[in-house]
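User: We ran a pulldown and think these components assemble together. Before we commit to crystallization trials, I'd like a predicted model of the whole complex to look at. Sequences follow.
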Amino acid sequence: MNNFSDATSCPVRNVLDRLSDKWTILVILVLGETGTMRFNEIHKQIGDISEKMLTVSLRKLEADGLISREVYPVIPPRVEYRLTALGQELLPLIDTISNWANRHMQQILTNRQQYNG
Amino acid sequence: MNNFSDATSCPVRNVLDRLSDKWTILVILVLGETGTMRFNEIHKQIGDISEKMLTVSLRKLEADGLISREVYPVIPPRVEYRLTALGQELLPLIDTISNWANRHMQQILTNRQQYNG
DNA sequence: CGGTATCCTGTGCGATACTG
DNA sequence: CAGTATCGCACAGGATACCG
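Assistant: Here's a predicted model for the assembly, 234 residues in total across the polymer chains.
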């Protein structure tokens, strides 16, 4: 039996708190699909994320060791992001949830509408 | 290849937007571990969630059809929550992420510390 | 190209009080 | 017991401008 009540020591909460924002999981999915990507590729792929939030998301993922960030000292600058081994390990789990979402969205939307009248 | 760029039509975003708040996934996990639970049981199990946010989270999960809410017309009131079939189907996926979190938290915390100096 | 720096706003969330 | 109602605020996140 788990104990979720202490936010700082509970692993699940420690990790989920980090994944539970508007963009992080999406960034992992995109990087997982395409492999190595540059900043603006990710940006285009997600579409409505602001540059600021993409930067913030990437930096947090880098800090946690889920993605790597390689800077090529050329002009114009070239920066490549990719999943690390740790990130690769997380990817299939997120992918599974993504598939579940695809399978059940219609049902969930119907439920939601009915509930809200 | 997925297209994540339209928030309203993309299944992944539709579903993830709903799961990506501070408490929802935790509520699913707790209900998954213990089965049928009353309001205050969930509240105690999570500890630092406010009654307001627990109510909000439960209502959203109910709206999406992931949990059911059964009210017994007795005094004092008795309300039981449990995962629906749809919720049960999502549970193992979240469980897997929870396990991943348990396995890798220490590494992630170390990464984070090193990154932030 | 790949970002910062600033400013600003909506809202997620907590705290507290009250209720059938 | 299982909630609502209300208030207030920190902060996530958007918009815009600027930069090496």
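Residues 11-116 of chain A form a domain with the Arc Repressor Mutant, subunit A fold (CATH 1.10.10.10). That may be worth checking against your pulldown data before setting up trials.

User: Thanks, that helps.
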